[in-house]
Amino acid sequence: MTIDAGPRLGRLTEDQLRRALDRFGLGALRSATPASGGHSGQNLVLSTDTGDHLLRGNPAYPWQLPTERYFADLLARRAALPAPVPYRIDPGTDVFGWSYAILPRLPGEPLPDSDVRGGLNDSGQREVAGELGRVLARAHTVTGPRPGRWRPEADDVLPFTLAGELDWPSRQPGAGPAITWRERVIRRCLGTLHGATRFGPATTPGDLAWAGRILDAAGPALDAPFTPTVVLEDFKPGNVHITGTAGRWSVSGLFDLTDAYFGDAEADLPRMLCSYLDADPALARVYLGSYVAARPARPGALARFPAYLLADRALVWSFLQRHHLRYWPETWTFTDWAGRYLDLAHPVVAELFPS
């Protein structure tokens, strides 16, 4: 019997799946189903007599699975968060032709990326928004030795270099000296936008100039010292599971940690915040308010926030342009699209962040 696991994983045989499970002693296969949600198509749900597991295969880069395991272990161990552990990796290619990992299928269901409200009633929406803020604050209690990326070849957090950040996500170490946090935020944002110009006319020279002015204005605030924490970067509705009933909603899963690094915790706030701004700014206030209640913002947060929001929106914009996805008027450029988020976010952050 063969299973169509989607264009990325291809057609897999029952024998292959059994061999993968046997490698980790995970029991007899009962069923295999492509996981719902996500853009990568890397996941297959395996039900066995020991429970439900997730096969994650055909990694985009050699470092992807080791990085996810590193941060899953760190978040589970040091913040008691529901990350997928144990995260078992088979680096060999003899079973499928590519390396793979098998990890627990976390309980609950993801919130839809297209609607962070997820069909919940008003009280449920507010409860989940508050819980997401608290969970992110817990993740940010995990500190690192320096700003930078964990690299499996060194088993260490190495400082950011300009070449390495501009080459992301190929994740070559990059030659040259370490760069400051300010330079990393500004140069990576502008480099991402410059790269997006290859995908169509919606990213213009005017967009780069507009973003550059906002980033430069935030520059002095970006120089303020901080304790490096885990930054998930892709903390969004589709990458968490929630479970519960009325009055008892909680986050039951935190996953897809490919992009995590160590940096300023504030850089992690815009991704989920923008999902809530699209859905309901009042929920954005609940989300950010619960985060700040658990982890008060540092002085200068209000001045830094536009830079962090633009840096996040540049990454999302580049992805959407590359895949020819859009949900806004055809005439909009990056300035129109990202400027809307800046406008919506301003009253929320101005209330909660110190200047």
Topology:
Layout: E1 2-4, E2 11-13, H1 14-23, E3 29-34, E4 43-48, E5 51-57, H2 64-79, E6 88-90, E7 100-104, E8 109-110, H3 122-139, E9 148-151, E10 156-159, H4 162-166, H5 181-196, H6 205-222, E11 229-231, E12 240-243, E13 250-254, E14 261-263, H7 270-279, H8 281-294, H9 301-322, H10 334-352
Antiparallel strand pairs: 1-2, 3-4, 4-5, 5-7, 6-7, 8-12, 9-10, 11-14, 12-13
SS elements, strand count: 14
Give the CATH class of the largest domain: Alpha Beta
Q: State which percent range the strand residues make up.
A: 15-25%
Task: State the secondary-structure class.
Answer: alpha+beta
The radius of gyration is: 20 Å
The major beta sheet can be summarized as:
5 strands, antiparallel
> Low-confidence spans: pLDDT under 50, at least 5 residues?
none
In helices, the fraction of residues equals 40-55%
What's the number of structural domains?
A: 2
Helix-strand pattern, N to C? EEHEEEHEEEHEEHHHEEEEHHHH
CATH superfamily descriptor of the largest domain: Aminoglycoside phosphotransferase (APH), C-terminal lobe
Instruction: Examine the coordinates and then state which fold CATH places here, giving the name of the CATH topology of the largest domain.
Output: Aminoglycoside 3'-phosphotransferase, Chain: A, domain 2
CATH architecture type of the largest domain:
Alpha-Beta Complex
As laid out across the biggest beta sheet, the strand order is 3-4-5-7-6
> How would you state the average pLDDT, rounded?
94
Distance between the termini: 62 Å
Net shape: globular
Count of alpha and pi helical runs: 10
